[in-house]
Protein 1
Amino acid sequence: MLSFVVLAVVAVHRGRATAAEPSGAVPARSFEFTYQVHVPANADSGGPTHLWIPLPQADGYQDIRGLRVDSAASHVWGHDPEYGNAFAAFTPTMQQSVAGFDVVLRFTAVRREHRVALDAAALQNGAAPAPRDPDLQRYLEPDKLVPLNGPIAELAREHAAGDTTPIQKARHIYDYVLATMRYDKSGEGWGRGDAVWACTSKRGNCTDFHSLFIGMMRSSGIPARFEIGFPLPENKTEGDISGYHCWAEFYLAGLGWVPVDASEAWKNPAKRDFFFGGHDANRVFFTYGRDIRLSPDQKGEPLNYFIYPYGEVNGQPVKNLQTHFSFREVSSQLPAVTR
């Protein structure tokens, strides 16, 4: 079993400018996270398995330490060329591919609440310079499943009509998504982040909520981006995590990136205002963006989003990867952080 350890992950995604923060103590959580992958035996593959696993990112609201990868298969670190997301790329031997192999990713994180003061003074004066982000234009462009024409553009025009400022447009779009969508994972179609499907079906999970929000924002000329990671149960200190959670940010010139979590607001109506300008600490962030192409040598189509492991054999996606995610609180009595 080979082990690779990075003592601290300190890289910050380019352009991660922060908006004005409320003063006072900042809620935070400190925890150990385990991300396990089993690649089943593949005796009839005719070729080795290539595997990519996303890595968590550090930024102004998340510290990552002690990142450790355990696997018999060798790997290299990499970043996708468009968003800069970090990953580990595994190239096992043919013998390992035939027999199957395991990967265990472990790290310790401190996640802080991200909350932006959207008061009149902050919006007028700003508190952070505009990020010199060469990819800011990307967040005004469509994704494969988030077009900016047709019904998405029509909805944006209808529900931001008469608004004179970006923040007014953003709030009306947010309110429209909450009033129209419902959190419902029954049947088929949900979870792909298809903005047109979401505006037609008016239901789905976090991916669908935020795809509609992002599409309407971009159609209104406001940069918006997709972020994905895992939720942490609010009232538990350890346990398994069944799947991902995603959220969004939009950009205000002179202020920076503003957090939004529309699906959590739908599930928690009392926090509707909080989640327009706030992300709580009950999450861990991994990657940005949609239509992600990995390197080296990904042969398949770009990934719709990147939170689960992705594997290929002879250029074809591997369908039977097995995963398990869990966390354990390191300290429930964190020292207060103040701004």
Note: The two ends are 43 Å apart (CA to CA).
Protein 2
Amino acid sequence: MQSLVLKLERDGELKFALLIATGSYIGLRISDLLQLRWNQVIGEDYFTITEKKTKKTRKVTINPELKTILNRLFIQLGAKENDLMFVNRFGDKPFSIQYVNSKLKDIFTTYKIKGQYSSHFMRKTLGRRIWEVNKYSDQALLLLSQLFNHASVSTTKIYLGIRETEISNLYLSL
């Protein structure tokens, strides 16, 4: 994901470099991600947000690598602290989800990235990375289930496509 973020920065797609980096590191649903303001993240170690879908309050810790990206893009974009992070070209509203999905499709095509190009890929990317870093443990799945506010670990497995991967690996192991 970092290489995509760097390519987008290089090519002047700063807002989408920011969106993909932020979404992949914090795993919020797109409806929550699009409401973030710079003053919630710049110079902060964490922020709290009430999720639109679940109405639950969530504390989000900001990873040091993400902090570096946020600081760099804040300067490059010439943003102000009270600004929305993902603002439309008129500067008055957040991106629409439809626009994000359309733009992600273009980005995935341009950079020859395979897979789902919806805004949900960032949240799933975070989940997959956490599961992988924790050596595919059941404990990681339990924590991800809580992070994503899923009703059960089996929901999280389906969400991350784990069952599908396990079945595919069975065939490959023959």
Note: DSSP finds ten helices and two strands in the chain.
Protein 3
Amino acid sequence: MITAVDFIALNTFTELVPAPDMVAISIGDPAQMPPENLSAFARAVRMEFLDLEPAEVEHYGMPEEVLFSHEQALQLSDFVQALHAERRPYRMVVHCRMGSSRSAAVALVVHQLTGCEFPRRPDAHFANLHVVELAARVTSTVIDVPRKLEGDEPHLYLPLQLQI
């Protein structure tokens, strides 16, 4: 079962030496090499898509394939639900390049599907809305993105260490 989730930046992820109970979701840009330490995690999945919304893809004339897709939402749901169905406890680490948008969105999805601990949930207000909305449709759930509150400024880039 997934007991906790956190989201971090790529540079923090690459320095991580995973504990035996850690699993990972690695998010990168299309054709970007996965982090070398990804294979050290008990279980891991790699996803590649840009941190864009559909309107941005259309505006810049990019192919839709660079967006988070229906198939990736299914892959995410299947991976999370399979791990959560196991008896063994897992802590899940989600990373993207900056650790604030794509990874935050995926961590919100993991939290919604499992009810696991998510200490940094209030900091997930920069979550990629396309990822959240598509995952919500695919999983038939409601996924709320925390609002950024006035004066609630840890800073754009979150603490480097894991919170789980």
Note: The chain has one domain: 2-139.
Protein 4
Amino acid sequence: MSDSNKNEGEIRQYLGFSLNGQRYGLPIGSVKEISTVAEVTTVPRVPKFVLGVMNLRGKIIPVIDLRVRFEVEVTPFTRDTCIVIVEGIQGEVGLVVDKVEEVLNFVETQVKAPPAMGSEAFMKYVNGIARFNDELVMLVDVQHVMSFQEFQDVLSPTPEEAA
């Protein structure tokens, strides 16, 4: 690391991915693994952004479609579409993304607060923005992508389902 980088702060790593042509990043420390979409089982009466659940080595985890959650155009799945398994405060969650790209490195001074614009839903889930080459990368706040209550609602049966 050069002396100028030492003064800029700690390097933060993000897993780069795309949704509808826009680049995003997930904190690399929260990423557990990457999986295919073929393993998802639909669940009735869940929010539209919940694609379903998947069995990950005996553990059932919810899977959400970030395109729906972020209110961007939903396109058909391709061979590049995958699920990024992340660890949030509520537990493991699968995030459907169009394509996983590469690991992005940003020093603290490169990460800026996102401007107060766009949909309220979108701004709730993005906690930073940084420039990578000539593109802006939206940095996703994993802890807010799915609330604890939403997590419980997906994994807990309703009283009539439990009967």
Note: DSSP finds six helices and ten strands in the chain.
